Amino acid sequence: MKLITMKSGFNIVGIALLSMWFCFACNARSEVEKAETLKSAFEGKFYIGTALNAAQITGKDTAGIRIIKEHFNSIVAENCMKSGPIQPSEGNFDFTLADQFVHFGEENDMFIVGHTLIWHSQAPRWFFTDSLGNEVTREALIDRMKKHIAAVVGRYKGRVKGWDVVNEAILDNGAMRESKFYKIIGEDFIRLAFEFAHKADPEAELYYNDYNMYMPGKRQGVVNMVKKLQEQGVRIDGIGMQGHLGLDSDLAEFEKSIEAFAELGVKVMITELDVSILPSPWRNLGAEVSDVVDYQQRMNPYPDGLPDSVNAVFSDFYLDLFKLFLKHQDKISRVTLWGVTDGDSWKNNWPIRGRTDYPLLFDRNNQPKPVVTDIINAALQKSDNI
What we know:
The protein has a single domain, classed as Alpha-Beta Barrel (TIM Barrel). Helix 7 (138-155) runs parallel beside helix 9 (188-200), helix 10 (216-231) packs parallel to helix 11 (251-262) and helix 13 (308-327) runs parallel beside helix 14 (370-379). With 386 residues, the chain is α/β, with parallel strands linked by helices. Helix content is 44%, strand content 14%. The protein is built from 14 helices and eight strands.
């Protein structure tokens, strides 16, 4: 009887110890699993974000939403906050998707970015013409800008934390783009846009956003513009460097731009990040009609998936890119992917119909690509190469 009691006691103690060890192991494993997401790996370094499309905003893309919640802590609206969709006719705003987008961000405790207030490309036609179809006056366009910004920024005051105020106003050579805003108002449209946005929400961060920011001419053009705004007393909080890159993009020049923009005393953000593996059609144009079929095939070389050799180059480039971001984490406040999975990307069917691209970190089956683990390990300083 004594023996049985002792044995039972031993079993109870053993079970208790085993239970404690199991709980400890579970907690430890839970912490590891928690760390092995993009947002956890970059915690304390910079926000890691993604752009949301309509299917994700409305809840239809459940697989995409799962990835967003698991891996990202910042979101930006891909299309629904642009001036065309949000104010299709003068004074008639459609905030349906934008409201859902902001609600999603708040519900999931994310840093919400509004994109974009003033952009020539997706502005509605009425913005620049009167009732007779004639070009509006400078005063009329300024008034429309002011009302649009006040309505959109004011609606989300205190909720949207940062705004891409002006988008793509400078050419690759550093000169001002001769958009309708520039032609009608002049260079002052940039200053006015920032002033209107600041008045609508004094606490929101205000950004200038553009592509090809690694090009020396554009870099200098943006530096000159920001310095001028600062001299005029205009508040500008950050520069968004769009990351629409290819495997041949020059990361050394990209780094120079990060450093140059940081020297202005503003935050640097990597926005709209995707890496195309497809050849550029502009470098391969030919005049022979007989070359059309071959040209189309050359422009869409991987319709059924990437070969291992291309995947390896893609992974190396993305890892080098994030190592660069980590090197300058003291300057960079946010890195945002332009889409969740390859299937979401605007790079598909652009600029040639039928193209299949693979520019993001999650594949068409909603699975992380192998490079995601490498990026996480680099962020956690587990990689021997960083």
